[in-house]
Amino acid sequence: MPSSVRLQEMIRVIRSARTQGEERGIIQKECADIRAQFRQGDNGERSHSLAKLLYVHMLGYPAHFGQMECVRLIASTRYSEKRIGYLGAMMLLDEKQDASLLITNSIKNDLSHSSQYVQSLALCTLACMGSAEMCRDLAPEIERLLRASNSYIKKKATLCAVHIIRKVPELAEMFTPSARSLLSEKNHGVLHGAVVLITELCKHNPGTLDQFRKAVPELVQIMKGLVTSSYSPEHNVAGISDPFLQVRILRLLRILGHNNDTASDAMNDLLAQVATNTDSSKTAGSAVLYETVLTIMDINSESGLRVLAVNILGRFLLNNDRNIRYISMTSLQKIVQTDHNAVQRHRGTIVDCLKDQDTSVKRRALELSLALVSAVNIRSMMKELLIFLSTCPPELRSHTTSGIFNAAERYSPSKRWHIDTILHVLTTAGGDVRDETVPNLIQLITTASELHCYTVHKLYRALVKDISQQSLVQVACWCIGEYGDLLLKGECEEIEPVQVTEDDVLDALETVLQSHMSSPATRGFALTATMKLSTRITDNVDRIRSIVSNYSSCIDLELQQRAVEYNALFRKYDHMRAAVLERMPVMDKNSPGHTNGDTSGVIKETDPSKLKPVEAGLLSEPASQVCDLLDLLDGTDTPLQPSPAPTNNPTTTSSADLLDLLGGLEPAPVLTETVYEKNGLSLKIQCDKQTDTEVMVTLIGSNSTQNDITNFTLQAAVPKSVQLQMKAPSGNVIPAHGLGQVTQTVVLNNPNKVSLKMRIRVSYSNQGAVHQDTVQIDSFPSPTCPPSVSPL
Amino acid sequence: MIKAILIFNNHGKPRMSKFYEHYTEDTEQQIIRETFHLVSKRDENVCNFLEGGLLIGGSENKLIYRHYATLYFVFCVDSSESELGILDLIQVFVETLDKCFENVCELDLIFHLDKVHNILAEMVMGGMVLETNMSEIITQVEAQGKMEKSETFVFQCPRQDR
Which Gene Ontology cellular-component terms appear in the entry (chain A) (predicted)? Predict the structure, then answer.
């Protein structure tokens, strides 16, 4: 065929190029030829040129000048030209190009073409690169083709419909009726497409999901037919009858049966049958079995079936084929949350997979092992994980270390074990740990006061052995600085005594200071530690002095500053030295002071404070846009709610402090007025402070019902010129029987001195029912006059 | 959904690339290179699944590949596809190519790229599996080939008369 010959010639020429540069030259020449062809040649030549262009495009050279040619060729009447035109459209065009809109009309015409192959070309292209507008235009056509009599076209139209729904979800209802009827097709291709279509429809709309639940018996019938049918050569793959269709149907059954008892009951027998009868010696059978297992675990199946499923997964785990092992671990990962005990039974095998040579299998095994760690097996699991860490591939290291730290934090049986584990990790993989490990570890060490001696000895020994792991060195320096006296005393019950002299310690610290492997931060640690030792040791204070004065001319600015300041401590402020360098107090994990590089701590603190002004700003803006007391901010209120605060200690302490500051006002009789009382919940308003332009009130919620009120939130709106700032509430649960209250302070800034009104929306849950109510406060209580309230 | 189907040889030269999501030309080439790097590092007897590279969507997408002689067939899929099913699909694809080209080899794929695309278009459409029945696929491909041949023949005749 002419087009192939020419294409082949060009390909041969390109392949004969010996260097990349030669190839580029040849392709440039060819592209110039192609461009000339496009300008003058007739359609026949065009299609050959486009074929050549597509080859060039695959190799990675620019081919955008072919886009208009695609449009022209698609519009041609000849099949061969249309074909190459559509192929070009799929490869070169996409929804961002304007040229794609031009082919919409051609596609529309071709969809009604007499030849099914032309129709299929159009359908294929639409499904691959159809933009939202194209889909909207052509959706009715596709819907019509869904009901065509030709199964070849039907199956293509079905998948095209799926693409349309993905691009334009609103059109889903158009395809729902036809989808149902497609299930009665005999052609497997159409059935497959129909199942995919129904799956997509169910994903988009829970209402449709309910509708399709009625189709469960039909699907069960089809599956039964597939499973029990005799050998049919066309659909057979390794002894299983059309495994692709079986897998799809199982997936759809999973979606339909999830959280629904009737549907799940209808499927139970079928699933048991498939699970027991499928031959899993080949991949095809394993695929079906694996899908069955996932479906069983995801629907409300009976417990016997679940046990069967987990056993199948266990069998997979022991399979020799690595693919099967990988798959079984992926599925165990999905069910480990819900059926933890069942998966625990296979812990031994999973841990063995950690030693497999295959990286993918190792990764899966690691994730699963971390999920299986519990208080009971922490010691043995940690041993395995530490062995794994020493041999694991580099890309998995940081994941492993963070997993180990998390597990250790949650389940460590004793402080000493915890510290040992962290030290082990730092020695093996110190370079791959998170930054906040160092302050976390330091904080942990300070809290374990009985282990200070043990810890500092261990760290000293580790330091002497190897100073390349920065995190380890940093922690070691800090500890030696703090607990140097314990180190020098030499006696420690839990470790063999080794005599450490002051010189040894100072030598170690100096090595760290001078080594090129130490980062600037590490050096800083070492210098400070050296300084701290000046109060803990007796003989070598002069040596320390000289070290410190050496660094007062260091190039590194941080070190220089530290050295100069320490020098000053030696000279002018010698009397304060002991007090400044004494032992640090035990650090509390969440205290504001615990921000030594601990990013999580910093985030916890600044985020709510950043959130509050932003939310208050957002809150006052819509309030100012709303004219006096019209509707409260609809719908989008909840993100504006300053509700995350109650779970965070620092902010509540600060708001509690604020209230405490105002507590000085309490002895004076402050007017509290009830503004809302319903269903046992009562809301009072208390005026804390009032000036000409500012009012600060506290809203107090209390609960006199039998049950706790949860998710209690308040939202407020004020007139245009008033600025509203809501502080964090003290909580969002009000205990029953009036045992507790929730308070929230509100500050109103009224620069224009308009009459103050406030509308408050209360929402809460009580006994599972959600309530919402609005109350308007027309004037605020002042120490002189009571507030007036109009309920809404 | 299948995000991309790539065929490249042992040196990373692309033999066929089909993307079902839009990427720029540069990104497409980078994806091919990145995928080649990830896949070529694998041993012979490890499993056929890999996490996707960063360019193609990171760890939510998987690379499922099969190595035949000098060619790697790689399907990049997201989590909605069954991994073992895709492995079987690759097998069906290769067997179909084998039937259509008669003992297919790399040269066949090089010189008949458009035919490979046509065969693939009968199996996967818009990122979704369309047809897995080999005989059905082959019938359709042959019918379409006949249609093309009949047209060019008609076209040829007037030319030869000149």
Answer: AP-1 adaptor complex
